[in-house]
Amino acid sequence: MLICGVDEAGRGPIAGPVAAAAVILPADFPIGILADSKALAEPRREQAARQIRERALAWSTGWASPQEIDRLNIHRATLLAMTRALNRLRLRPDLVLVDGLFTPPVDLPCRAVVRGDRSEPAIMAASIVAKTLRDRWMRLYARRDPRYGFEKHKGYPTVEHRRRVQAFGLSPIHRRSFRISSPG
């Protein structure tokens, strides 16, 4: 049975896209390297992501832009990113396990698993892939526009990020539908 895990990264930031990953692991994958992506230190997360991408039977990503997030809302944009990731898989899974309460509208058997990124290896793997690739996207964008420090906070609403928004205004990747207030 081919089980695909799906998770996202980037629901909480006030800037940048939301990324989703879909991963089908082989039966012999070393699941000891997996955990919720937020629980892994960045070097371990990067190492795990590399192994996942090299050893997975199939993996793919889907994205929703800040403009799509603003137009659809973050919930619908997340489901759109998940749908895009699943549609790009080169293998058709028998079952899709999705972290959270909701499943994307796809023609596949899906099951939502609350806190699945802590209990289901395929979801953990998807969590790691989505987070590392989104973080990389934010670091690359920071090179293009260094004013906001995206390489440090990845778009999350830190005090420093909010101070920079106050100083420079919104960038093209800020989510206009999110509350971006001045720092504390």
Short structural description:
The chain is α/β, with parallel strands linked by helices and 184 residues long. The protein is built from six helices and five strands; from the N terminus they run ββαβααββααα.
Report on the architecture of this protein:
The chain has 184 residues and is α/β, with parallel strands linked by helices. It contains 6 helices and 5 strands; from the N terminus they run ββαβααββααα. The chain has a 5-stranded mixed sheet. A hairpin with an 8-residue loop joins strand 1 (3-9) and strand 2 (18-24). Helix 1 crosses helix 4 and helix 2 (66-72) packs across helix 3 (74-88). The longest helix has 24 residues, at 121-144. It is globular. The chain starts with a strand and ends in a 16-residue tail after the last helix. The mean pLDDT is 96.
Alpha plus pi helix count? 6
* Percent of residues in beta strands: 15-25%
Query: Average pLDDT value?
Result: 96
Low-confidence stretches: none
Number of strands: 5
Structural class: alpha/beta
Oligomer: single chain
User: Which sequence of SSEs, written as H and E, runs from N to C?
Assistant: EEHEHHEEHHH
In whole angstroms, how far apart are the ends?
51 Å
* Side-by-side strand order of the widest sheet: 3-2-1-4-5
Q: Which word captures the global form?
A: globular
Radius of gyration: 16 Å
Describe the largest sheet. Answer: 5 strands, mixed
Helix percent band: 40-55%
